[in-house]
Amino acid sequence: FPPSLPGDLISSPASSFDPEPLGPARLPRVALKANQVGQVVLYGVPIVSLVIDSIERLCLAQISNTLLKSYSYNEIHNRRVALGITCVQCTPVQLEILRRAGAMPISSRRCGMITKREAERLCKSFLGENSPPKLPDNFAFDVSHECAWGSRGSFIPARYNSSRAKCIKCAYCSMYFSPNKFIFHSHRTPESKYTQPDAANFNSWRRHLKLSERTPPQELAYAWEDVKAMFNGGSRKRTAPSSSHKSARSFPVIPV
């Protein structure tokens, strides 16, 4: 694949990457104000947003009571944790703002807020088709974990066709593991430091397994999030990751 930007391999339409035609200059983006109230439409449902620490966040309780009302609290909580989504708790002042905006009932005592991207991921995991990102057949994510002595390997999406698929090739011993087993596989190296692993919770791999590149391109990070969302909940159909060979742009391919 020729070296270029890694954008077109994600499921966005190709037209979204076309240069914009010449026209009137864009107005400067207005800075978000603290506790500014807004509205974001998810799957056709308006959700109240609030600016917290310069980031627009959505009310998780409102999402749960509208878009995800068919699912239990435990289902939503477990899915959120599995996707690595962390809630930011409102202050009393912010909670009162949400009450007045109609996002929370008067009797509510707390509210967790998540970003728009996180809300989209959470809702898609329940309501969407959960189609895998389009990646070349020989593409692999360079991943690592720090459980026990830690390890590093290549996560191969083309092999990830079920929750127990052996799709990770260890960089040290070249053995293949499923994601939930790989976090319990480690190698002691001179620079490694022992970290006490969690209890035997195989579903926690999504929290512990991370891209080795700490600041990856946004498109690569989103593709990794989409891959982690697959087979997360026990009721998904087994879908082989699709491939794309037509695009001139591509992610870097890691030999495996």
From TrEMBL:
Residues 235-256 are annotated as: Disordered. CDD domains: DHD_Skor (cd21080). One of its GO terms (cellular component) is cytoplasm. It holds the Pfam family Ski_Sno_DHD. GO terms for biological process: negative regulation of BMP signaling pathway; negative regulation of transcription by RNA polymerase II. SUPFAM superfamilies: Putative DNA-binding domain, SAND domain-like. Its main location: nucleus. Keywords: Nucleus, Repressor, Transcription, Transcription regulation. The keyword Cell cycle does not apply. Belongs to the SKI family. The keyword Transcription regulation applies. It comes from the Eukaryota. GO terms for molecular function: DNA-binding transcription factor activity, RNA polymerase II-specific; RNA polymerase II cis-regulatory region sequence-specific DNA binding; SMAD binding. InterPro entries: c-SKI_SMAD4-bd_dom, DNA-bd_dom_put_sf, SAND-like_dom_sf, SKI/SNO/DAC, Ski_DNA-bd_sf, Tscrpt_reg_SKI_SnoN. This is SKI family transcriptional corepressor 2. Residues 140-232 form the c-SKI SMAD4-binding domain. It is found in: Nucleus.
